Every structure is written in structure tokens, then in C-alpha cells.
Amino acid sequence: MADSAELTDRDARAERVTQAYAGNRLLLALPDEARAALKTGLSLTALARGQVLFDVGEDVRNTYLPCRPTMVALLVVTAEGREVEAATVGWEGALGGIVSGGLKPAYGRAVVQVPGPAFVVPTARLDEMRQRFPGMGDLFTRYADAMIAQMMQSVACNALHTIEQRCCRWLLSAHDRSGEDVVRLTQEALADMMGVQRTTVTAAAKVLQADGIIQTRRGRVEILDRRKLERRACECYGQVEAHFERLLPEIKD
């Protein structure tokens, strides 16, 4: 039987592991054995605002697991070069070769919107680990399902809801992922992701600011009243969150 010193040392090592991977909830939720095996191919990097992680048609060679406050947008790119956001990934998930094996040509463009740290692992290594550890494969498959739901809801939201409602939905998601009341994002970047003119987003932001819900500064949006922001958003935010929690309760706060 292990003595108290051995147990204390074991607990300390477990705590260090938890702290190391707590930056990404999906990584932290992996089965212990799978996470231990994966770490040999895992590295931590700093992502810069505007950095393109992969582009349309490129073979996706790396999987990224963002840590707070990092946020990466998955964009659909038109023939004219316009970009519209299809989904956003933060500390709750991963992007790039999540479930597919072999060649992984990217359908969209992945661009860093809020800079910060992220874990990176070669997709080939991730494929190998999913085959070795069924629990890991199940976790990533459920996450991919949640991502599809987010994209489906975004399509409905863009077609049916006002700019103000959509703006509130996006700010709520950004607030969740940043872990801070101040979201480091320009109104121009938000307009690009929503597929609208910057003046349109500026007008919506002015209304929210006048009502004491947010405070905008250069390159920053501060959330002043979360409850009011939730009331002004459409139902899309709540529906996506509820589906996410049903699929992946172990990675929710």
C-alpha cells in the first residue's frame, strides 16, 4: 500500500497535469490514459490576431485546441473573396481534422480573431490516438456534432434575426470563451464575421452602449450587463448552449 508521502506526490503530479491542460476543456475531459499518450505530440503555441491556421483546399495537418481567451473563426469564403463566419471555436473545443482520417482538405478558412495560447497536435497523431482510445474518439465525435449544431443554428440566425440580436449572440459566445468582461475584438472584425458593413455593427453597438449593456473602446468591447445582453439576444445562443451541454456535459463549467 502506498504511504502518505507517495500519495501526496501523486496528488501533486495530478494537480500539475490538471493545471497544464485546464486551458482547453476538451483536452482536460480526455480519459487520463489517452491524454497521457497524446502529450508526446502536443505543444503549446501563441496565436496572433489575423493568423490563418489553414485555408480553403489546404490539407489540414494540425489540430488546434485554443485556450482562454483565444478564439478562432471558421469562415466560408466566396468567389469574390468575402468572408462569413460559420462557427467560432474557443477553449471549449478544437478545430482541424477533428474526426476525419487521411487527407483532410479544408472547406473553409480558420482565422484567429482573439489572440492567445493554443495547444497544437499533428492530425496524424490525433488519428492514431482516436483509434487506440475509443473514449477519446467518442469525445471528439460528440464535439463535432455540437459544432454542426452551431453551424446549423448560425444559418437560421443569419436568415431570421436582426443585426442587434445576432450581435448580442456573438458577444455572449465571446464572453463565455474569453473568461473576461472585456473582449479584445474590433467592430470591423465583428462586421466581417457577420457578413455586414461595419457601419451596421457600429449602429447596433451604439444602441447597446446607450442602454448600458456594453462599452466599446478601440479594439475592445466590455460587457457591462450580461443579463440584459442575454435578453436582447435571439434564442439561438441558448439553443446551441443547451445542445452543447447535453452532448458534452463533462466540458461545461
From TrEMBL:
TM spans (from-to): none
Matching Gene3D superfamilies: Jelly Rolls (2.60.120.10)
Location of the HTH crp-type domain: 161-227
UniProt superkingdom: Bacteria
Record key words, sorted: DNA-binding, Transcription, Transcription regulation
Record-level GO cellular component terms: cytosol
GO molecular function (one): DNA binding
Pfam families noted in UniProt: HTH_Crp_2
Annotated protein name in UniProt: Crp/Fnr family transcriptional regulator
Organism encoding this protein: Caulobacter zeae
